Please model this.
Amino acid sequence: MADTPLINLASLVMLAVVPYLLASQGTMLAGRTGLFIVSQEGIMLVGASVGFLGAYLFDSLAVGMALAMLAGGLFGLALAYFTTDLKMDQFVIGLALFFLGLGLSSLLFKVVVGVTLKPPIIPTLQRLPIPLLSNIPVLGPILFNQNILVYFSVVLSLFLYYLLYRTSIGLSLRAVGENPKAADSLGVNVRRYRYSTAVIGCMLMGLAGAYLPMVYTGTYTDGIVRGRGWLAIALTFFGGWTPQGILLGSFFFAIVDILALRLQVTDIGIPHQFLRMLPYLATIVVMIFAFRRVRAPAFLGQNYDRESRTAS
Amino acid sequence: MHETQALPQQSPLANAARTLVPYVVAVLAAFAAVGILLALMGFDVLQAYSTILFTSFRTPNGFVQTLIKWVPLVLQAFAFTIPLAAGKFNIGGEGQMIVGGIGAAAVGILFFDLPLPLLLPLVLLAGMIFGALWVLGPAWLLFRFGINEILTTVLMNFVAFQLIDFVATQIWPDPVAGHPTTVPIGVGGELPLLLSRPPLHSGILIAILVSVLVYLYTDHTSAGYELIATGANPRASRVFGISVRQMFFTSLLLGGAIAGLAGAIEVAGVHGRLIEGFHSNFLLLGIIIGLIAKGNNAAVPFVALFIAILEVGASAMQRTMAIPGEMVFIVEALILIFVLLTDVVRRR
Model:
């Protein structure tokens, strides 16, 4: 009963949801104030590298996660400063920081660990069964016997929904992305909103990166993010720039991920390379539907110039 | 405002200085920043930097290596800057290069026996066509539904990684290679050498030709003018009868074809076969070059040469001093950021 294949599979999907969910909610949060981040892949790589090194050197996954979030936050701070204060093109500086993250992640690992024959390993995140709830048949092992970041990412999504649609902070936040000029004239501090959402959003991306070595591999390897950062942007569009849409959408992404992996090991006559293409091709197909129905925040990708009171 | 009005009256020399000074500052700042990092890690900074900057000029071998590296870099940069001129970001140059390489290898293997005057043009053409085909999907989705090209082009890279693995391990594998690799293409498909020792293939002439053609196209034809107008102000361009979506479509396809050509030249000039991983980092460097050149196609070949020098120097540094080659990638990213910063300073 406890370990039927289907329950096992559903449980794996819950695990695979986390990096998508964290990175996409981060993208959504910053996007809602008009900052369109394209550095996810780089920030997640830095998160993976720093998170692993922190956990390895201090022998604590918690320290690793904290450092990964700190590193992500620094990228967010840089992004906010370059776009909000210096009014640089969001895509151009986003790409530049993506490169920086790519180089830094690999360099940090090499410098700290050095060249070794066997890669250093950290213990992976433990399951944290919730008392009573984890005993519920079927749902218990799937939903309530997971690691802490699974719980965190789901609770975060619910919290973001509450924040955006049920509080006045959320109303102001959304207004900044839709019409910063109007928000500004009503006394909303546009700059402060952009800074805080950029930093928090990038912290989530750093954490999403740290999750990968801590749950899947136990070590850092170059390219460990495997395009999940870019998929996270697509997922944000797919989820309609809403926390609840992203929560649903990340299950779709995780299911495709797990399916592609599963089909590889069960020989069904299709070369495994084509199965590995599946998540990326599925994303493109899904975007065709998403883009037609979804409306992104009106000021997405544009900087707000307070002095001219128009978009720059 | 006053500054921009004063510009045309200045001498060309002063103009060149105005363009170059920010670059020099950016390069120095990036090297200084990374130098501090290197020193903190206990490396000999001066030796590292002299290795990076002068390896290309010390031996004929180093210089030829730099030229060979320059070819795909400059082509990848154009694959990025041509769509950029129209305001579109092609982040799929790597996939287009891979698939161009696949097309070139396929033709070179299938028509193994053809003589050089027939096979070589076919190989290069196949590269361009396959490269353009690979961006056709994203370009069409942008044209038809307005779907963000940054995402679709990037995602196609990951599909291409699997495709090259499939071709090199399942269709035309070379079992003795020990790494996913196809069998060699026909001798008639290989680019003739300009120098035999050290070997320098004639792909460099193609890259120079493409550079000139791209410059003439974007800066001296009405089609190129429409391209740039589209990027500068799509709404105004539409008013003046330019089909903006058509420009997006064409510019992406052109970029894809040039990226595909880069793949074909690597196959026909460097390896003589398709090797998985031959596309290493060329896309990222191409984007960095395009952005450092600020999309100016006349500047792209020169920035590409500088980056090729850094790259060749970086691998020498990794070999001799055990400093990770990623160091130079950070230098390049910082140069880009500092170039962007000098723009901000100048605006004020």
About this structure: The first strand of chain A starts at residue 128 and ends at 129. The first helix of chain A runs from residue 5 to 31. The radius of gyration of chain A is 20 Å. The interface with chain B takes residues 38, 82, 86-88, 91-93, 95-97, 99-100, 102-104, 106-107, 110-111, 226-227, 230-231, 233-234, 237, 271, 273-274, 276-277, 280-281, 283-284, 287-288, 291-292 of chain A (CB under 8 Å).
